[in-house]
Design brief:
Blueprint: H1 3-21, H2 32-38, E1 54-60, H3 65-76, H4 78-83, E2 86-92, H5 96-106, E3 112-114, E4 133-138, E5 143-148, H6 155-170
Parallel strand pairs: 1-2, 2-3
Antiparallel strand pairs: 1-4, 4-5
Length: about 170
């Protein structure tokens, strides 16, 4: 065999075994928000769509009269939120048993977790807002918007404003 042919065969054999020694490509990693939620204990049977682009975290409590008036309307929008690639998650602010009962009593269809999970979610900011209040973040943990009371009904406008801002940022300057 010629030396050139031997080198060619050697190179081919090295190429065929090289992938065995190379670092395996890691599959797409979970988003930071999905990573936190995948480890959370849910207080309802409903689990969140961890592939959502946006997450709205809702602070609500059973004793809160405004919550009892405002949150049901927001729950009716839950299907629209899913269509907008957003997952609504209730952050319970009381004892776990009370939160479980609150979700069950009102037949809330969204996932519910204890409020302490919110401490681990990047981008979450409820500063200046009481109950009820909501904060929207991207799957990557970027802050989108926050609102309280009936202002939470404006989630579509908030999301559209954020998306328009992102398009402007992505638009190349002339």
């Amino acid at each position: 065999m010629s030396a050139l042919r031997q080198i060619f065969i050697l190179l081919l054999s090295l190429l065929s075994v090289a992938p065995l020694f190379a670092d395996e490509e890691k599959p797409d990693q979970e988003s930071p928000v999905a990573e936190v939620l995948s480890k959370a204990t849910f207080l309802s049977k409903k689990k969140p769509n961890l592939n959502a682009k946006y997450f709205m975290f809702l602070r609500s409590a059973s004793w809160c009269v405004p919550c009892q008036m405002i949150v049901p309307k927001l729950m009716k929008d839950y299907g629209k939120m899913k269509g907008a690639q957003m997952e609504l998650i209730l952050l319970g602010q009381e004892d776990e048993a009370v939160v479980r009962n609150y979700i069950k009593k009102h037949r809330y269809k969204c996932p519910g977790v204890m409020g302490s999970v919110g401490n681990e979610i990047p981008g979450l900011d409820f500063a200046g807002f009481g109950f009820p209040s909501a904060c929207i973040v991207t799957a990557d943990g970027d802050f989108v918007a926050k609102s309280g009371g009936v202002g939470m009904y404006e989630w579509k406008k908030q999301l559209k404003a954020y998306q328009a801002e992102q398009r402007k940022l992505m638009k190349p300057e002339d």
